[in-house]
Design goal:
Blueprint lengths: L8 H6 L7 H11 L5 H8 L3 E7 L3 E7 L13 E2 L6 E4 L2 E12 L2 E9 L12 E3 L1
Length: 131
């Protein structure tokens, strides 16, 4: 049996639950603040876990699993980035970084963070988030 994201149900049940980092939660919070379906997105985040976290050298992909019993948003397979909504500043990134929040079938599915230039810094605690 597989979930909507093609992940084995047994794998999900047996895997230890990995939580979103403080950095990831803060970025997501800023991205969804004021969004028309913010309340639904916050319900999705309650109980969400990290399926996979991948550092690419120039950014970060965090795959997120939301329990199926959470409500869905109307936006299906798109992302939130308006204006852009979030700018990430870091002492090691002259031009900063950006972030996107992706959806799959109305559920949060991935946080993507990317440096505009240079390599992704190791110490995410030094990021300053500008909205």
């Amino acid at each position: 049996m597989t979930t909507r994201q093609g992940v084995s149900l047994i794998k999900l049940l047996c895997a230890r639950k990995i939580k979103l980092s403080d950095f990831e939660m803060t970025v997501i919070d800023v991205l969804i603040k004021g969004y028309p379906e913010e309340k639904v997105l916050r319900e999705q985040l309650n109980g969400a876990s990290v399926e996979k976290r991948e550092y690419t050298g120039v950014g970060l992909f965090t795959e997120i699993v939301v329990p199926n019993n959470r409500p869905r948003i109307e936006k299906s397979n798109r992302f939130i980035e308006e204006k852009p909504k979030v700018h990430l500043e870091h002492p090691d990134l002259k031009d900063g970084a950006g972030a996107l929040l992706w959806f799959d079938e109305g559920y949060i599915s991935m946080l993507e963070c990317y440096a505009y230039e240079n390599s992704w810094p190791r110490n995410e605690a030094l990021f300053k988030i500008i909205s």
